[in-house]
Structure formats: C-alpha cells, structure tokens
Amino acid sequence: MRLAIVGATGAVGHELLRVLEKSSLQFDHLALYASPRSAGSTLMFKGEPLTVQATPDGPIDADVILASAGGSVSKALAPVWVKGGALVIDNSSAFRYDDAVPLVIPEVNGQAALKHQGIIANPNCTTAIAAVAVWPLHQRYGVKRMIVSTYQATSGAGAKGMQELETQTHRLLHGQAAEAEVFAHPIPFNVIPHIDSFQDNGYTKEEMKVAWETQKIFGEPDLVVSCTAVRIPTMRTHSEAITLELHHPATPDEARELLRHAPGVEVRDDPAAQLYPMPLTASGKYDVEVGRIRASLAFEGGLELFVSGDQLLKGAALNAVQIAEYLQEQGALGQPTRATALS
Ligand code: A2P
C-alpha cells in the first residue's frame, strides 16, 4: 500500500506524520507533497528525513492520499487523484456535503466509509470533537436539540494562525501595534465570535458546518443543532459547551458511566478536585475530554457538558488515519505487501 500526504508541511500534515508513526496502518511507501515553496525540504518520519515534493497538477502514484492542503487544492485535484486510482481521505470541506461522499468518524459511522466512490471526507474539527462525545448519549437517550458554544484555538486556522497569535502577543507585550492578517481582529487578550464567513441567516459557515455535518454523520437530517463558534487565544485544542435536549431523560451519573465506556472519550469530571476538560490537559491526547456533566436547567431531563479535544488530532489527522486503519482492518484497502518501510 502506497501512502501520500498532500499538505505535509502544514499544521495537520505535521500531526499526520506523528500519528502515522504510532499507527497500526500497514504501508510500504510514504510520499510527502506540499506547495512548490516547500519542494526539496525534508520532514522527519521514524527518524528518517523524507523529501517534500511539489504537488503535481496530475495524478499521484499512491493507493491512499491523505489530503490536507485546503479546499481549493482538494476541489481541483482530488477528482484527478481518484481517476488515477487513489482513494482520497480529504480533510477539507470541499466534498463533505456531497451525497456521494461519506463523511466519517469511525467511532460513529465507520461503515459509511465502505461505500466510498474514491473520496471520503473527514469532518470539521469542531463537529468531530462534539460528535465523539454526543454520539453515545444520542444512541441511549436520543438527542432532540443540541446547542453548542465553542472556544476554538488558533491552530484551527493552520500553522499561520498559531504564528499570528505568537507574533501579535509578542508585539502587544512590547507596546507595538498588532496587525490582524489571519483573523479579523487581533487575537491576543481577545475572543472573536467570527470563524469563517457569515451566511444569510446570520450564522457563520463554521457554525453551519457543525449543524450540517452532525446531521449527516448521525444520519439524522432533522436533528436541531445550533452553534456559536468563537476563536480564543490558545494554540491548540478546541473546547465546547454543549446543551442537549433529549427524547428520554438522562441523569448525570448515568451519562458519566455511559461515556466512561465510550470509544474516543475520557471522562474528566470531578469538580471538587478541580478536574474538568481543558486545552492544557487535552492537547496531544487522542481521546476527547468530557466533563462538567450536569442536569440541564434549560431542558428537563437534558444534559449540559463541556468537552476539550485536540482538533489537530481527533478533529483532523487522527480521524483521517483512523479511517484508513478501519478500511484496512475491513480488508477494503488492498493487501499491503509488507510491514511499514520507507523508500
Ligand atoms: P506549504 O507549507 O508549502 O505552503 P496549514 O493548514 O497549516 O496552513 O497548511 C497548509 C498545507 O497545504 C501546507 O502543507 C501547504 O504547503 C499546503 N499547500 C498550500 N497551498 C498548496 C498548493 N497550492 N498545492 C499544494 N499544497 C499546498
């Protein structure tokens, strides 16, 4: 099995390499691609330098391509890669709402990946983190309405987002002006209720992604989801306050017990010991932290929870690799000829 990463030099690309180092995915060859600016540079994989190539306009000689170079690159090139025989696991939003493209979180709807026609979409990071925590509750109690408020890290905007936080913080602490480039306003010491473009209904595209994608992944087109998405001055890991109205009443103890056994979830919920989800503890973790689980005052029998999940991992790189692992376990990726080795 020949594997390629497009966008290998980016924030998600970096995590893909780290996740692949620890993954059970069997592949014979790994090729790295980015923009022409990065051609010839090297990235380390399992202690070996691998050379980055400029992404070609045509097909890529790989069985599986993990694409993380943005929507316009995926839109233009993923169909070409598929024609060339590759399966594309795409991290961008380019194909997520296409009925022919499965949108997959292995813990929730892994089987949908088996029905692909060449492209499988990886969900939006905010959606993925919420879905891992809410899906087990939905299966048991049936979610009627889901209200989400987010606290999203700068790395959601890629490596340049983190860079802007660092540069602006340094400038502001030294009495200099902070020029906003990536975000609409200076991000240090601020919160910005604006992620992606505003839509006609007053919500942003990021907020609507959480609604559309949760409905598609859960297979529940009528599920009511409303989100307010906010950028905060952290480097990585998104947090979310989630309110759930449920068809069948839940108690916090039951929900905690259920989530303790749920895949991809770590219950971190002991307020008396000041134990709850935070970016500080969730960063670098594969599991999504869930805590502050309590009976909702807004909806009788409903729940309130707080989640923190490393959006570069479960919200992007990890989920993409888990999709490939799932397909390989199901015998749906072709047989690797030997264990991981590099050329
Ligand atoms: P490069 O580093 O050469 O610009 P991030 O989301 O962190 O900003 O990363 C985006 C990734 O997508 C980087 O690896 C970047 O490469 C890559 N990229 C950006 N534009 C293109 C392009 N036109 N073709 C291929 N890769 C691209």
UniProtKB/TrEMBL annotation:
The protein, known as: Aspartate-semialdehyde dehydrogenase
Chemical reaction(s) catalysed: L-aspartate 4-semialdehyde + phosphate + NADP(+) = 4-phospho-L-aspartate + NADPH + H(+)
Pathway membership: Amino-acid biosynthesis; L-threonine biosynthesis; L-threonine from L-aspartate: step 2/5; Amino-acid biosynthesis; L-lysine biosynthesis via DAP pathway; (S)-tetrahydrodipicolinate from L-aspartate: step 2/4; Amino-acid biosynthesis; L-methionine biosynthesis via de novo pathway; L-homoserine from L-aspartate: step 2/3
GO function terms (MF aspect): aspartate-semialdehyde dehydrogenase activity
Taxonomic source organism: Deinococcus rubellus
Its EC number(s): 1.2.1.11
Gene that produces this protein: asd
Domain of life assignment: Bacteria
Catalytic residue positions: 125 (acyl-thioester intermediate), 238 (proton acceptor)
